[in-house]
Amino acid sequence: MQEWFQEWIRTLRTSQVSKFTDLLAASLAYAIAYMWRFGSLRTLDDNPHHIWIVLFFMLPLVHITYSLNGAYRENFFLRFRPFIKQIVFINLIMFGITLVVLYLVRNLWFPRSFFFIVYSCNIVLAIFLRKGIRTLNTFLARRWKVWQRPAILLGTTSEADDIAAIIHHRHPFGLTIADTLPVAEDAVDLRLLEERIKTRRARMVIVADNALPMSHIMDIVTLADRHHCATKVLSSAMAILCLRAGESFDFFHNVPLVHFAPSCQSHKHQWYRKVISQCLAGGALILLSPILGAIALLVKLSSHGPALFIQTRYGETLKPFPIYKFRTMCEDAEKMLPSLETRNEANGALFKIKDDPRITPVGQFLRRYSLDELPQILNIIKGDMRIIGPRPLPQRDIEHYSQKWHRYRNAGKPGLSCLWQVSGRSDIAFDDMCILDIYYLHNQCWEMDLRITIRTLFVMLIGRGAY
Q1: How many CB atoms lie within 10 A of CB 49?
Q2: Most exposed residue of 71, 189, 233, 286, measured as fewest CB within 10 angstroms of its CB?
Q3: In order of start, what are the domains of the chain with their CATH numbers?
Q4: pTM
């Protein structure tokens, strides 16, 4: 029983505990403010709508607002992040949202000062509970060896020494160094690493050698993922995630330590994502049908050929499927492709020309604002794609994959938009695009999907990086 409890503790993520403490803080804050205002909680029986406010408005608001502001990304970092200012800022946002909602619903139940007390109490309680959990976590890991998450450290560099020192002194989120493996000739013995992951019951692999080539790094990430281990990678080659994608990480000697969570490929998880994507795509198809019809008519009247362009693309596990787009090129564009290879302006497997002679005037406008991609809503409804995911590539680009790790971007369902599209699109090098896609597949969550969706709408408006 003790071994089972230890295993359950190891798998319990800090973010899950933080979510529980934040919801508990909000509930207690509401109860304190209610007793302050009404003198007793007994009046809740006479006014059931008072309890509905906290259950169906305040608690969901707390969870969503904290999540979107990155309050549950503790596991992405080794250094403890200051959260007091963040909690104060988030509660100010929630207080503002609450005032707007109460005004819209013509609130007659509570004065505005009531929720000022609620969120003031929530700030104090959230900070107190988070600090308490953090202190308890460190104490249990250091003194009683409870709530430990064994990690394997790869490398003997000065950065590795800094990482080991932080973990030894602070035990962030229960991490302990269970084993250290050297890096010889820019490589790690993968068989030995797999053996140590099993014997040490590791929950994380930390790659602390910036000299490792990307191909070997991705092999380590894939190996760790097979054993449900998270991976942290110290690599200047992944700076694109900070510089263009806007992700945040720890830095050691000005090099980011990038976090790759174990990918979630359970059937239930994938089914949920599929159903949600299809429902949202169905609603979008209904709302956008007049615009889709107008664009189709404009394409048909402006040049010879069909309004829709259907091309074979390759998605999850390189499975082919027909993708739908509004036609932006002349009819014989595919036949002209070989003669234009020498003019390719993109590196790696992609083929891009800023002034492609095959693109029609209407097509140029559609491409600039990504309107040519809208028919892929049908692909989402069919189940070939998701709303957010790596962009599917044509056969020509797949054949130009120059390294094995490029194929790892095809480990999940493709999408209508992705980190690559909101980080510069055609201005991004191919290797960087693959890094963005693989990072997304490992760390995908509804918060990231929502952020990418909002950024996609902004990118479509300004037309950045599209040609």
Answers
A1: 9
A2: 286
A3: 2-143 (no CATH), 149-260 (3.40.50.720), 267-462 (no CATH)
A4: 0.89
